[in-house]
Amino acid sequence: MTGKVSNRLRVNLNTISLEADVAYFGARLELVGEPETRYQAAQLKVYKALEMALDDNLKRLRKKDV
After folding, report:
1. Element (H or E) spanning 57, and its range?
2. Which of 66, 53, 60 is nearest to 8 (CA)?
3. Within a 13 Å sphere around the CA of 26, how many CA atoms are in the beta-carbon half?
4. pTM for the complete prediction?
5. What was the pLDDT predicted at 24?
6. Burial letters for 10-28: b for 16+ Cβ neighbours within 10 Å, e otherwise?
7. Mean pLDDT, to the nearest integer, of 16-39?
8. Of 28, 56, 54, which is closest to residue 43 (Cα–Cα)?
């Protein structure tokens, strides 16, 4: 494989992986729902932060791919 093809494949695989991760954290957020305990509130906060970070990375990868 040439360098360009290999790099594009890596970017596509990273994009797909990040999309799956974002979907996972979205589902986890739905499962937590309205937190009833401090643990659930902390869990919700972490999932939201991770989802935002993954979404930012995904946006950057998509811009590179264009």
Report:
1. helix 38-65
2. 66
3. 8
4. 0.62
5. 85
6. eeeeebeebeebbeebeeb
7. 84
8. 28
Nearest-angstrom CA–CA distance, 20 and 2: 27
- Mean predicted confidence (pLDDT) in 6-10: 63
The residue among 46, 15, 16 whose CA lies nearest residue 28 is 46
CA 14/CA 41 separation, integer angstroms: 30
For the chain, how big is the Rg over CA atoms in Å?
16
The two tokens of residue 32 are 């937590």
Encoding tokens for residue 2?
């040439």
Compute the distance between CA of residue 16 and CA of residue 36 in angstroms, rounded to an integer.
Answer: 33
pLDDT tens digits for 28-54?
878 878 889 999 899 889 888 888 888
